[in-house]
């Protein structure tokens, strides 16, 4: 007999013996399983019985056992009954618990199903997306965060999908955001060459950075803060009482800047005036301001009579006069600069000192002018916008998103630093920034949240520092005090405004004695200013910010 046959026979014998043993011990294992289930049941009942009822229950059980013991043949009958019941209960092996559903599996399947109507091809013989397919056919990688939310996804789409059309892209982005959660922002990176889409959920930007002196070089304005991807540097900021490093969105102004003017649009109430105030506070230590408050809400009243602030205008008449002056001042500076260059001399200080024209909701003045049959004040911006870079004149134009069609083409073409605040749609985002936005905003947008695009760079996320109106009673006192601490005062000013640069008769604001002391908080601010100039009373109740008669 060969070795193989011996082995085969041995295996058959072992199998037969195993089968016999299983048959023999089957009743025992059946009863054992039943007894185990009885024990589990008893344990469960005991655990579920309230503590105060456990004593009586134990007593009753002991009495029953004693009763059975005392019965004739009682113990035998009890054992037989227990075995029979155990055999009955243990007759079926315990059904295996259904496996826990995989959350990732469910979510990705749902997303795949939702994308299928948009990405399936009817005539495609082997479609990436189809009723028969699964998400693993199209999704190459995915990541979920600790809370089980989709954090990153890479998917392939068919070559016939019109990925160059913004509307087609927007549909896909909407579906992905809908399935992955609308409470977060998502970046969509369309790789048109390889028909792949990478989706990344973006962490929320901090909203607790208040106005404060930022560590920047002269000529740099911090528009706000972004994420690590949006900025190549970080600056120290005080945030919630501690110093943290945050990546800023920096806008460089001045003669070497390729983006010398800013156009910021925003949904109503989302912080365009706040952004303007933040820019003003950063510009004031190094330059002079002319502020036009087109909406006339008095939101920039805190700047009235500050050193370096030529005027804060709220009326059409005053605004036109101020803008005319800025246009003439730009021309004067250009002539002086040319003369200095011609003679090989350094330019005088009064033509190199930065001058800022800050316009808040100027399209409202345009409408007013149109109603009165007067020329659009925006026409007066032509010279500062076209020649401002050389003349160190910077224009900041902030307005409502709804008013974007009333903004003149000159402003649109010259203001190459762009900001959009508030909830944006693909259409409004692209119209405000000049390029389609590859980020889909979250459903809820806090005030001051938006996107910035400096020149031809890609748009970045932006959170404007909380720079509240110090005269807004509803704003938190700490935020108002932070703004007051940044407002300049005559005694803290290091550089005096150049007398030649001031408009007609150079009427510098005459600060009252009360203003010589630096107000430390809101109460002091409100208390000191009205005495100085009854017309420029800084309260919300009488918001008319009367300009000083400088023209
Ligand atoms: N970055 C921010 N952080 C915190 N709060 C902000 C921020 N920006 C704006 N706010 C708050 O939102 C409200 C509206 O701000 P703001 O007046 O600047 O908006 P707006 O766009 O100019 O509004 P409107 O178009 O109505 O004039 C204010 O109460 C302001 O304090």
From TrEMBL:
The keyword Cytoplasm does not apply. The chain crosses the membrane at residues 58-89. Residues 246-430 form the FtsK domain. ATP binds at residues 266-273. Gene3D superfamilies: P-loop containing nucleotide triphosphate hydrolases. Residues 496-517 have a biased composition (Low complexity). Keywords: ATP-binding, Membrane, Nucleotide-binding, Transmembrane, Transmembrane helix. Residues 493-517 are annotated as: Disordered. InterPro entries: FtsK_dom, P-loop_NTPase. The keyword ATP-binding applies. This is Membrane protein. It comes from Kitasatospora terrestris.
